[in-house]
Amino acid sequence: MAAYDTDPDCHKVGGMLAPDIRIYLCGRVTIERNERVLTEAAIGGRQGRLLFAFLGTRRTQPVSKPDLIGAIWGSRTPPSVETAINAIVSKVRAALRKLGVPRPHGIASDVGTYQFTVPAAWIDIEEARTAVDRAEGALRGHALSTAWASANVAAAITRQPFLPDEEHLWIQHQRAQLQRVWRRALLVLSAVSVRNGEHELGIQHAADVLSAEPFDETACQALMRAHAVAGNRAEALRVYANCRKLFRDELGAEPSEQTAAVFLSILRAE
Fold first, then answer.
1. 141 plus 192 within the same structural domain
2. Which of these, 254, 187, 195, lies nearest to 230 by C-alpha position?
3. Which domain does 26 fall in, by range?
4. Are 69 and 165 contained in the same domain?
5. What gap in Å lies between CA 26 and CA 39, rounded to an integer?
6. Fewest CB atoms less than 10 Å from the CB: which of 87, 116, 232, 263?
7. What are the pLDDT digits (tens) for 48-68?
8. In this structure, are 112 and 131 located in the same domain?
9. Is the pTM of this model over 0.70?
10. What is the distance between the alpha carbons of residues 22 and 268, in angstroms, rounded to a whole number?
């Protein structure tokens, strides 16, 4: 954090340096700095939102102009696309200036590439990924309160839709990544709930993950364990039977040895 000591985009919170700029890409695209807020209308409408979200999800790397154009228009580029992309970039830069983002931060361009350059900014998608890693680490270390809090942060962010009215391939890919983070967060919440004796909550979280992704064997294992700990041995075995049938019918295969081992341990338990 020492690198932020003189950064105008940071302020102190409880003695620690924290970013002034908060960017929300899940749900409604929003940029906040102190008490000022920019919504997608202020950053150039639909096209400005696409540009900002594309760069915001890739801020560690420069993006080529053709890639940026494809992210906004796909294969249906306007006749004067160079003029159009320059105008959108200018609108986003102007919006960030109005928010008080100091130069040289904002949208940088260099040799035909663009990059989001607000290093101290908090971005919800990045926070979700960091939070779920922290949650899983805390769970392995038996720090249940930290695991619960971090998993809740990740789940709260990723349950919000990402650009819900758009269907570009990069957006679909981003949604798939976010759903994986959401599933991981719910599995942590399930494990913490079970360990805390909140069996029904643990069952619900695991069931939600398995409903969203029926081939997720980690969710199948978690749901079996949650039912077994709650005393629902027959229900735990039924979960495995359903999982096995799905794998046989859809994939022509059996669940993994790890999933089968969970089933056998519950089957043989007295």
1. yes
2. 195
3. 2-120
4. no
5. 13
6. 87
7. 999 999 999 998 889 999 999
8. no
9. yes
10. 52
